[in-house]
Amino acid sequence: MAGFDHLLEYGAWAIALGAGFEGETAAIAGGVMAHRGVLTPVEAWLAIAFGALVADELFFLLGRRFRDRPFVQRARQKPAFAKAIGFVERYPNAYVLLFRFLYGLRMVSPIAIGLTRMRWRRFATLNVIAALIWSAIFVTIGYLFGPAVDRLLASLAPYKTELMIAFPIPGTCFLIWLWWRKRREKRRAALVSIEAEA
């Protein structure tokens, strides 16, 4: 149980919390835990659905009640936000059922929906259905591929120290690259403004 020992103490509550923030990763972990007998498949399914549902309801209410607050304003500036608004205006029911499966739109979608005229009861009803379907799919994936996950974790166990050292390196390189790119864009913008003034 090398990869999920830290979840055992809290079980269903841990994966419910993870579902609200990590999404598919926590749902698959719940399926692996069900495969190992830590939880029953139904417990894992309901815990993941509950966590995802609560998180989306909170984000919906943030959009609905606090539309002028900095958190919501920052979300509105993301390119994915405009896409979410466009989809929910054209296909409101289908979008609530499907946004969890759309890459890059998971977090901003409930906030965007909260800014529309969709009533909370309608959103909540569709959200329950969507959370149950989404949870069932990813918990099943984790359950079916649990043996493969166990084998992978067991094969990596002897290299745990090396992996703990190696994993931060790509992330650090990525952050340096982002910093370099932003700096280059600022320089270009400054040159363009100087040329425009000239």
Automatic annotation (TrEMBL):
Residues 23-143 form the VTT domain. InterPro entries: DedA_domain, VTT_dom. Keywords: Membrane, Transmembrane, Transmembrane helix. The keyword Membrane applies. The keyword Membrane applies. GO terms for cellular component: plasma membrane. The chain crosses the membrane at residues 44-63, 123-143, 163-180. This is DedA family protein.
